[in-house]
Amino acid sequence: xxxxxxxxxxxxxxxxxxxxxxxxxxxxxxxxxxxxxxxxxxxxxxxxxxxxxxxxxxxxxxxxxxxxxxxxxxxxxxxxxxxxxxxxxxxxxxxxxxxxxxxxxxxxxxxxxxxxxxxxxxxxxxxxxxxxxxxxxxxxxxxxxxxxxxxxxxxxxxxxxxxxxxxxxxxxxxxxxxxxxxxxxxxxxxxxxxxxxxxxxxxxxxxxxxxxxxxxxxxxxxxxxxxxxxxxxxxxxxxxxxxxxxxxxxxxxxxxxxxxxxxxxxxxxxxxxxxxxxxxxxxxxxxxxxxxxxxxxxxxxxxxxxxxxxxxxxxxxxxxxxxxxxxxxxxxxxxxxxxxxxxxxxxxxxxxxxxxxxxxxxxxxxxxxxxxxxxxxxxxxxxxxxxxxxx
Length: 391
Ligand code: ATP
Ligand code: MG
What we know:
Elements: E1 4-9, H1 18-35, E2 41-46, E3 49-54, H2 60-67, E4 73-82, H3 87-101, E5 108-115, H4 124-138, E6 143-144, E7 151-157, E8 161-164, E9 168-169, E10 181-185, H5 191-200, E11 205-212, H6 219-236, E12 240-245, H7 247-256, H8 262-280, E13 285-287, H9 300-307, E14 314-315, H10 323-332, H11 336-339, H12 346-349, H13 361-368, H14 375-384, E15 387-390
Parallel strand pairs: 5-6, 5-7, 10-11, 10-13, 11-12, 13-14
Antiparallel strand pairs: 1-3, 1-4, 2-3, 4-8, 4-9, 7-8, 12-15
Helix pairs in contact: 3-4, 5-6, 7-8, 8-9
The chain binds adenosine-5'-triphosphate (ATP) and magnesium ion.
Adenosine-5'-triphosphate binds at residues 185-187, 189-192, 209-211, 270, 288-290, 294-295, 297-298, 345-347.
């Protein structure tokens, strides 16, 4: 029955000049999201509104699921669009609409008509009253409630007449691409995919870097990260994933440095390399899934020492979240099941029994001096031999 969607977006922050950029980006993402849906759609903009109009049959549920992944959408309203064939025809169409959308007629309702076509012979007040009456007559089980209606039927009289009453919440946020690009440090865990999702939700394009340590980490562990990037990309759009071989760097640190400092030194090199790759790819910030106090490497002391190597801003969107809060988002965006698959991570392989929890920057820097001979070359090789997978 539906022929189109009315797509509503939040207007905060998109006044003036930026508005068309926002709308154009949103339309591009809507088109992209609907491409894989059964059916064909025309996405258009009309007087501060975005419509996705189906050219013929389409799969409603699939289309709604796809639109729920498009950041910037505040609400998705399946729409019936009718030609203006006179007032009596409108009344008939409204009864038909209610009948089809609400099999159970025990509900309260209100009609909310808007007449932007001022040539239409009946004003909005009158339309509200007349259509209310027609609905009550056709379905005596219904009741009018003008304050808290269960069904709010919108009747918009424009060049066509739009009917809608179902409002499905969208994901909110800003269209991806309206806010630059960042480099996500993506592991196979629960937190970093969520961190990526959150930053993408603010309109940021994502690239990602994953460090693996073959043969200590398996091909399957790598595939898991590719899978996670693909899951995040349903929201963020395509992600350029840089896969960096970290084995030689890790082994070298293991040989040269005190074992309780391994994690922190390793993390400093991860950040450095991710930043280096980020710079080459026009990223303006790094993103991690760190959360204060979650593990030894995420005490505030450790975070400060890790952060010290970075010159770009580092965004840690889940920094103040409890694990359960992060898990809830992972479940919502469907990355959780993949994240909990039990594959080894390069960080955990060389991990000491008692890692330092309050590292001292000067001591860490002193330990890193033992790496001077070979580390620059190893870092360069790691960067030069990166593998790129588009997810
Ligand atoms: P996650 O659930 O995201 O793996 P975590 O709780 O396991 O996080 P750590 O292993 O300390 O925490 O990692 C902290 C952050 O460092 C991760 O959220 C991620 O951003 C980054 N990170 C960790 N390991 C890797 C890796 N192998 N490749 C890329 N980034 C990594
Ligand atoms: Mg991890």
